[in-house]
Amino acid sequence: MLLLPIIMGMSLGIRTLVNDSSSAGAVIMGVTRSVVLLIAWVVGYFAFFAWGLWVKIPPPRNGRSSERKQKAFVATATYCAITLVAALITVALRPSLLLWAPVFAIVMGVALWEVVRKRPRSLLSGIATVVASVLMVPVADHTIRGSINGIAWWWALMLGIYFTGTIIYVKTMIRERNNPRYLTFSIGYHAVFVLISLVFAVLASCGVLTGFAPYTGLWWTVGTWLLVIAAAISLFRSWAVPRSAHNGGKWTPKRVGKTEQLVTLGVVIALVL
């Protein structure tokens, strides 16, 4: 979830530049901006994670605790400094990116507040981080080209819906595994995902969304229907896997993660077609 959206946005922006017969210099500058953005994003995540550890470590009561908290603080400060430099360079190369600042301030503010409240794994925190992550699709495209392709918003929307569903599903396997109401909520959420993807597929088949896509015709339509299939698979696993675990199936977090990678791959393939 950390790298996939921004890489998809980078590939979309660079590919659009190439398809528009942009000069080699424009393509090189686009790649340069995107690489600096990628550095800011990844190191920024490290800063967020390190800060979360710093908050989590209790006030020093002995030398060891004090040392751990100090190390976490140094790591946080270091990552924040690198992130700030990379972000400033990115903005210097594309000043209009400042328009995104209020959006990310709100989203990350929610995530940070949940950490302060000792709820880093709450659903609200998860949704906030998902929103921040999927917004990197249009942000990356904007960074590279100075504008946003309509498909970037489509990708961000579908990835956001899918990743939010993944967070809910994983909770039914771990923290909420004995909560039947949460399982019902998870299944219902994934059913809505299927419905939304089905509506888009029907509209695409009718030619309504053709101008919205970077491609036209058959592949765009095929991709939307593949997304319906991927959504249906995610709906099935939101019911079948918790049921299997309830009946004694061995579903470790590692196994859950590996199977989810296959579903994610299906969603990505459906989107990039």
UniProtKB/TrEMBL annotation:
Xref: InterPro entries: YwiC
Transmembrane regions: 35-53, 73-93, 99-116, 123-140, 152-170, 182-212, 218-236
Alphabetic keyword roster: Membrane, Transmembrane, Transmembrane helix
Source taxon at top rank: Bacteria
Keyword set includes Membrane: yes
Pfam family for this entry, one: YwiC
Presence of keyword Repressor: no
Protein name, per record: Putative membrane protein
Organism annotation: Corynebacterium kroppenstedtii (strain DSM 44385 / JCM 11950 / CIP 105744 / CCUG 35717)
Phylogenetic lineage: Bacteria, Bacillati, Actinomycetota, Actinomycetes, Mycobacteriales
